[in-house]
Amino acid sequence: QVQLVDSGGGLVQPGGSLRLSCAASGFIFSRYPMGWYRQAPGKERELVAAVSTGGGNIKMYADSVKGRFTISRDNFKNIVYLQMNSLKPDDTAVYYCNRRRGNRTGTAAGDYWGQGTQVTVSA
Question: How far is residue 61's CA from residue 115's CA, in Å, rounded to a whole number?
Fold first, then answer.
């Protein structure tokens, strides 16, 4: 069965960095676009970044994280990463991996989600 396992969250000071990982299993990983979403308390879940199928040459980012976050994928290890630099308190949220629907970087969230990993940015 499809499984996504998120890890790598934690407490970090403003300006710090974290790398999130999502280990995938139960499907042909390289054939699906993958995304990272986040949900802060009292807010809706939002798409942070997505990467295309295959080599992951096409990427998209929310405006709020452009230039600070980088999404990548390793099709040998079946892992998608989110490197987060220059973190801000507004980045505090639970981060979720998702197997997206559609072509390129995907057109919508898919049915499968990781369990989420908490990221807290605070002094």
Answer: 21
CA distances for 98 relative to 12, 13, 89, angstroms: 24, 26, 23
Local structure of residue 91 (DSSP, 8 states): G
Residues composing the chain:
123
The neighbour count for residue 121, using CB atoms within 10 Å, is 20
What is the pairing mode between strands 10-12 and 117-121? parallel
pLDDT digits (tens), the chain, 123 positions = 999 999 999 999 999 999 999 999 999 999 999 999 999 999 999 999 999 998 889 999 999 999 999 999 999 999 999 999 999 999 999 999 999 998 888 888 999 999 999 999 999
54's torsion region: left (phi>0), alpha (psi -120 to 50) or beta? left
